[in-house]
Design brief:
The protein contains 12 helices and 22 strands. By secondary structure, the chain is an alpha+beta fold.
């Protein structure tokens, strides 16, 4: 097992204080948005096995089967198939969707064939992989996820009392649900920019006025303060607003529009950078491709709560319908017997509360404080003791 030396990404939407508070470090004054744990080429963690720090990606590349295990390599190739993060949002992230595996492969091949540079601002597909993800709240966590029923979205728009929104509300009521949601999102994203900005600003003023008595409008009023005139504010009103309590999670599959608004959480995802944006961003929005990827299906967000693992290890598992990752947490209490963690797959272990001590097969120990993490190669048996909370990221068995 290896202690991970990790990288913090300083995106503008990040909180300047949440990660420092968790890590017990002094704030720098800059936003600290994400702490990455894994072997993603954008910011691979580093390990030191006695010859100095090396990239975890390079360590895995030198012996994929030894590090990941044969079944993982056979299923997902010679790379760690997941990326674990601590995510600390102070302001809203962009409204976005991710492709499924077939769409990602097609989109990547098409852009490669057309010679679109990988770093081009209008490039949609950075790789040929899908990007399902899960966020588990460590603090109250606000987000947007999935379409509301069309009638509910119509009522929300209509309640603002803005005449320019009436055609959208009428459309949501006049057509079958999926068709109506597609038509309204298309109209919002393709409208003349100045006219749409005026509509968004009028809606924002109404939301601010109504929010004290009608809290359902408060999240959208807040979005508009960060992104004035952005059509994504209206697109967001088609979606469910959700607040996760600490310990609750949300799984986000392909084609589901979503945005994280505020809070600190543990995020896990398949190893991909493929994002198509719908709004709340100055970045490129490819409307035709976006409309091809979005699944226009109204459904409840589906908040996840952990369930005991069937093998009786003491783990609490957050279920996800994919193989690339499996996220669980392990509550540790002083005096409890050591918890044996299943071997056979690569693991990243993250302490989010208290302190955890990991013991390897030959008695070597590694202690993790809050915000610190370790990588465990496949086949290495590890036991955990301590007092606190340990998150475990691995592949599905």
């Amino acid at each position: 097992m290896d202690r991970l030396d990790t990288t913090i990404r300083t995106y503008a939407w990040g909180s300047p204080t949440a990660l420092p508070q968790l890590l017990g470090t002094a704030p720098t004054g800059d936003p600290q948005a994400e702490l990455w744990m894994g072997a993603h080429p954008g910011a691979p963690s580093r390990v030191d096995r006695g010859a100095g720090p090396v990239s975890l990606a390079d360590a895995i590349a030198a012996d994929p089967v030894g590090e990941l295990g044969g079944p993982t390599v056979e299923a997902f190739g010679p790379r760690l198939p997941f990326l674990l993060k601590l995510l600390a949002a102070e302001t809203p992230l962009s409204l976005q969707v991710h492709p499924d595996l077939d769409q990602a492969r097609e989109g990547f091949a098409d852009e490669e064939a057309r010679g679109v540079p990988l770093d081009a601002p209008h490039r949609n597909y950075k790789d040929a992989n899908h990007k399902p993800e899960m966020i588990c709240a460590l603090t109250p966590f606000d987000g947007l996820c999935g379409f509301r029923p069309a009638a509910e979205a119509a009522e929300l728009l209509e309640g603002l009392g803005v005449p320019r929104l009436k055609p959208y509300a009428d459309l949501l009521r006049a057509r079958p649900e999926g068709e109506a949601l597609r038509a309204v999102l298309t109209a919002v994203l393709t409208a003349e920019p100045d006219a749409m900005a005026a509509t968004v600003n009028a809606a924002a003023e109404a939301a601010v006025r109504l929010a004290p008595e009608r809290p359902a409008y408060a999240p959208y009023a807040a979005l508009a303060t960060h992104y004035p005139g952005d059509p994504g504010v209206l697109a967001a009103m088609l979606l469910h607003h959700i607040r996760l309590a600490p310990g609750e999670a949300l799984y986000l599959g392909a084609g589901v529009p979503h945005a994280y608004i505020n809070g600190l959480g543990v995020e896990i995802m398949a190893n991909s950078d493929n994002v198509l944006r719908c709004g709340l961003t100055p970045k490129h929005i490819d409307v035709p491709e976006l409309l091809r990827i979005v699944r226009f299906e109204a459904a409840p967000p589906g908040v996840l709560r952990p369930a005991p693992a069937p093998e009786g290890s003491g783990e609490e598992v957050y279920p996800a319908p994919i193989g690339e990752f499996r996220l669980s947490r392990l509550p540790l209490a002083a005096g409890d017997p050591a918890r044996a963690l299943p071997a056979g797959t690569p693991q990243i272990l993250l302490c989010t509360e208290g302190r955890a001590t990991l013991t390897g097969p030959e008695g070597a120990q590694l202690t993790l404080e809050r915000g610190r993490s370790a990588y465990v190669p496949a086949g290495e048996a590890v036991r955990a003791t301590g007092e606190g909370t340990l998150f475990r990221a691995t592949t599905a068995p």
